[in-house]
Specification:
By secondary structure, this protein is an all-alpha fold. 73% of the residues lie in helices and 0% in strands. The radius of gyration is 18 Å and the shape is elongated. It starts with a helix and ends with a helix. The mean pLDDT is 92. Keywords: Antenna complex, Lyase, Phycobilisome.
């Protein structure tokens, strides 16, 4: 079955179930031709289809980044939230500005969580060297904010983000590394949620063993 036929199946779907099935099939095709349609699906009021579209866009990776950024719809909050999830999964630094903004200030905890986790997935080697220090410092500042979020699931994601950043900067920014380790240790000692404390302890160990 060609990608064009799969796209037509998405466009002709007349129920939530048929849309989910069609989007899943299109996502599994792993074709750049599917990107515009998968992004369009993010704006539908169908969470199942949106999850399938996010999975497909994440799997496609870099080719999906610019189309996602160009079509971020500030007026369609649902579509924007799903697009942020896709950008978080891809980890391309071209999506960093959106992830920083969303992690630091979005009103929905699920979006803050996804964006925060995405900050721990950034492929820093794809960022020009002259931009690296400033970008990592901005990421560090936002992650410090996320581990103070009132929602524990965001703090948990913040621990993941700090762990990823710490591993990335071990050799280039050792002074930040010490601050990250101190913050993780504080979370491991005093966070009110056991899962966050345990994740912080695990992050400390992973950083030491890296």
């Amino acid at each position: 079955m060609t990608v064009q036929i799969l796209i037509q199946s998405v466009e002709k779907a007349d129920s939530a179930a048929s849309l989910f099935k069609a989007v899943s099939a299109l996502a599994q095709a792993n074709s750049v031709e599917a990107i515009p349609t998968l992004i369009t699906v993010l704006g539908y009021n169908n969470p199942g289809a949106a999850v399938a579209a996010v999975d497909g866009l994440t799997q496609l990776g870099e080719p999906a980044v610019i189309p996602l950024l160009e079509q971020l719809d500030g007026y369609n909050y649902g579509a924007r939230a799903w697009a942020i999830r896709a950008l978080s999964g891809i980890g391309d630094p071209r999506g960093l500005e959106v992830l920083l903004e969303s992690a630091g200030s979005d009103f929905a905890l699920s979006v803050r969580r996804a964006a925060t986790r995405g900050l721990g997935n950034i492929h820093w080697d794809k960022l020009p060297f002259e931009q690296l220090a400033d970008a990592q410092f901005e990421t560090f500042k936002i992650l410090q904010k996320t581990v103070e979020d009132p929602e524990w699931i965001v703090r948990y994601a913040g621990v993941f983000g700090l762990e990823g950043l710490a591993i990335a900067i071990q050799k280039t920014q050792p002074e930040w590394l010490n601050k990250i380790q101190e913050q993780l240790q504080q979370l491991a000692n005093i966070d009110e949620v056991l899962a966050v404390r345990a994740r912080a302890k695990w992050a400390i160990q992973k950083i030491k063993n890296y």
